[in-house]
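Same chain as my last thread, 482 residues:
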Amino acid sequence: MGVPKSYGVERMAQPSNFLSDSKKRSQTTVAILVYSWKDINDLISCTKMYNVSSVPPSIIWNSPSVELKWSRPMCGHCEVKGKKCRLKNNSTEIECFNLSKNTKGITAKLVTIGSILGSFLLALAGFALYRVYSYDTIEKENQARIEKFLEDYRALKPTRYSYADVKRITNQLTEKIGQGAYGTVFKGKLSNEIHVAVKILNSSKGNGEEFINEVGTMGRIHHVNVVRLVGFCADGFRRALVYEFLPNNSLDKFISSVDSSHFLGWDKLQDIALGIAKGIEYLHQGCDQRILHFDIKPHNILLDHSFNPKISDFGLAKLCSKDQSAVSMTTARGTMGYIAPEVFSRNFGNVSSKSDVYSFGIMLLEMVGGRNNVNVTVTTNEIYFPEWIYNLLEQKEDLRVFVENNGDAKIAKILAIVGLWCIQWHPVDRPSMKVVVQMLEGEGNKLTMPPNPFASIGPTTINPGMPARRLNQELEVIPESD
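reply #2:
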């Protein structure tokens, strides 16, 4: 303990005649301790090893002075053994003794628990830092990618808004009018009283590709049957698209049942079909680059105040040159029920603009039948819906849709025949959108029935009056690298 061999001397004054004089016996014995400050500090740092219960009076009173000495015990050989040392029976002999087993066990457990807990907390902190760093790095890369694209895009028309502008336009995102896989749509109003639809993109989905697709394609499109992009927002990880507002919602709200109160009438349905066809033809042939939409369906056809159709949602669109007959894709894209067979499997042919033709054909058949082709509640005893329509036409049966006169029946038949031409299994057997427009504008009696698009999947015996079964068409997915 760093104790010097001699700490000091205690001198004690004893009064005369201490034992004979009762008066003097009451006097207090005073001990005068003489130490240096260094001795005192060393003494304070000592550890008590044992107690002295009493000191014989003869030692104190028969000597003019008492000298107390402390010696440093030699504990080295005990410490080597992992033990402690002490004076044996108040003598100068040194003995070693073991620490309490309970104390050692508790200490070991505490050390073990502390080590494990410390390692876990350290690993957790490291993992958290890694995730934060990785997310921050990826997000910064995405932001840099978008900023570079917007820098090149500066010359085009749509306005760039800050996120504060978006919140102001939408009145703090209060009026929600739609929800999709990639974002939420809110109604808003610009300062000049023009209403807009603002789509707030989900930051957790994608790497900014949908944003770039939407802005990159819609910013260069100017057609009466395509939704106009008013502006966009790219404020850090917050991204939004600002479109013109169309008050009559989407087409799927008006084709769920032809005999419902929402039925628009066959003349209007034909106008809508023709407008959509013209819009898709413009995407394929009217721009500097061909735009393949890959998600044509009623939900993505919006209607203005006069029920004129406008194609929207270009998040899955792909650009290619006009002289490019096929495009390569790493994965299938689109909505189940509207995806062309070749998008799933290249055994049917190459992916091209004919893939949009297929989706358009499915949508036409839905408009005719007043039902949704994608119906998860359909039982297995029902036939594939487009095949049912084909069988009705082939056997010259009534389409059994809501018609009031021969003119309505003629329009329904035209839409059905054009739709069946568009859904031929192989892309080479489908018409281009230019031909589709001509078919819809022409006389119905000049249209011929297409080949049976379902013949390749085996013959069927169908009662046109009551669909007999549903054909399960499972297509092998063959990915193709860029």
